[in-house]
């Protein structure tokens, strides 16, 4: 699971959960897989990203130096910054671990790089 | 749109729904309709795409490479399935077809449970080839290991056990001007679903393509939020 996915997922589908975001991230196994950098894609994705949550995620899984704590103002023209953002969003992967709902403590396992967001019927209705 | 190749050396293929007539009809529908729907669309934003029930990943992979159909806008696809093997195979299918790993993301999730959105964003395009085959209890039951595979096509006694809750709730995931493409069979009574399930939940449905495949008559329907449709 890439940190981009963590940035987008919530536990809001569980009943009585108000925000369910961000999910606390615990990583048991992390892998870095280089992938094709497309500056346009990263640049157009950044408005959708919660940068603070991405920064916290990099801190919590041992990649504290990956990105600066705040987003660059001129990121569209700043290739160095976009490459760092690409690395943090799409190259650092949690292979095994878990995400935890901030309100209920409900755990969502991550196994073989796939986040398991399955919930039981009685948790949603 | 190129038809993606499913890698055969993954050890997962027998555990996941293999693309069939329904998958290919959905691909054809998307190829025809997305071009029309995105023509003249001048936004440069990334297109948020969600596939519910990705199976082998054939459709998610095709869409992840479909910026030509989207007037040059770049797609970002989330692929959901209840079968972990389908999630794994989808990522492998993406790789085998040179999809950028930043464009395709698999998540284990049941599409019936979307009465509240598990994502922080809503989607511009949602695609679903649901389990739609009517199966009576006890009929056609396979052993326990094939249970997840059966979930990919078993639609319960009336064929609509997945479709009804999904169609009732999917508006929570759809952008105001978003498009939902869904494959249905005559078994599901599409006209009834449009009138009695989609409409009361604020969605208009129109048929975009149909085809007879053996004893099935399949069709793909496009749903949009009422009053906000730009197409």
UniProtKB/TrEMBL annotation, chain A:
CDD domains, A to Z: Trm112-like (cd21089)
A Pfam family matched in the record: Trm112p
PANTHER family, sorted: MULTIFUNCTIONAL METHYLTRANSFERASE SUBUNIT TRM112-LIKE PROTEIN, UPF0315 PROTEIN-RELATED
InterPro entries per record: Trm112, Trm112-like
Family: Belongs to the TRM112 family.
Highest taxon of the lineage: Eukaryota
Protein's recorded name: Multifunctional methyltransferase subunit TRM112-like protein
TrEMBL record, chain B:
Location of the Methyltransferase small domain: 36-132
PROSITE patterns referenced in this protein's UniProt entry, alphabetically: N6_MTASE
Keywords of this entry: Methyltransferase, S-adenosyl-L-methionine, Transferase
Keyword Transcription: no
Keyword rRNA processing tagged: no
Annotated PANTHER family: METHYLTRANSFERASE N6AMT1 (PTHR45875)
Family: Belongs to the eukaryotic/archaeal PrmC-related family.
The protein's name in its UniProt record: Methyltransferase small domain-containing protein
Taxonomic placement: Eukaryota, Metazoa, Ecdysozoa, Arthropoda, Hexapoda
